[in-house]
Specification:
It contains 6 helices and 9 strands; from the N terminus they run H-E-E-H-E-H-E-E-E-E-H-E-H-H-E. Helix 1 runs parallel beside helix 2 (44-56) and helix 4 runs parallel beside helix 6 (154-172). It has helices at residues 2-12, 44-56, 74-77, 100-119, 134-139, 154-172; strands at residues 17-19, 23-24, 60-66, 82-83, 88-90, 93-94, 96-97, 124-129, 178-182. The strands form 3 sheets. Strands 1, 2, 3, 8 and 9 form a 5-stranded parallel beta sheet that branches. The chain is globular and about 50 Å long. The chain is 38% helix and 17% strand. It has 193 residues and is of the alpha/beta class.
């Protein structure tokens, strides 16, 4: 498998910390039909093989977790993409606004995916909050028009990501490393900063 070869090469060449490409936390959060996933226990054995490979070389590996939000292609997820607000995050593709219950369900998906990553031997997880994906959509005032506790002030726009961190810590323990990848520029066409 090409991914295993890439990660092995990185580990063999003294890369001390490898952060994987983003794995989706639920099928409706994918951005590509071939995207790696962590939404089911069936993914754990192949991920254990990857973490073992890196650890044999003395490296550490962190799994990046993501939901692509309004950038999810409808043909990949089998429906309309979900996002903070009912906007076209991709030209010509209108997303629908997530309900509070759906936001909480996504947070649970992140916590479950992080626990699978821990079981697979990852040294931590990184939450993807950049590149116009779901949590950067929440953080950016141009792509978040909500008026509830997840919109408006910076504190509110950061709430969903903060709650994900808290949920992962509850699920995986306070000693399991969790980081966030934050973007300073939104690359979504029509929402450039």
């Amino acid at each position: 498998d090409i991914q295993m070869q890439i990660y092995q090469q990185l580990a063999e060449n003294d890369v001390g910390l490898i952060i994987t490409g983003h794995a989706c936390i639920c099928p409706e959060g994918r951005n590509d039909p071939r995207q790696n996933g962590m939404y089911d226990d069936r993914f754990i054995p192949s991920q254990q093989a990857l973490t073992a490979l890196v650890h044999r070389q003395g490296g550490k590996i962190v799994q990046q977790l993501n939901h692509s939000g309004g950038l999810c292609p409808p043909d990949v997820i089998g429906g309309t993409p979900a996002a903070p607000s009912p906007l076209a995050y991709k030209p010509g593709i209108q997303a629908y606004a997530l309900s509070k219950a759906e936001i909480l369900r996504i947070q649970d998906h992140f916590a479950s995916a992080a626990m699978r990553a821990k079981e697979a031997g990852y040294d931590g997880v990184q939450i993807h909050c950049a590149h116009g994906y779901l949590f950067s959509e929440f953080i950016d005032p141009q792509t978040n028009e909500r008026t509830d506790e997840y919109g408006g002030s910076l504190e509110n726009r950061l709430r969903a990501a903060k709650e994900i961190l808290e949920g992962i810590k509850r699920e995986c323990g306070s000693d399991f490393p969790v980081s966030m990848r934050l973007g300073l520029k939104n690359f979504v066409k029509g929402f450039e900063q």
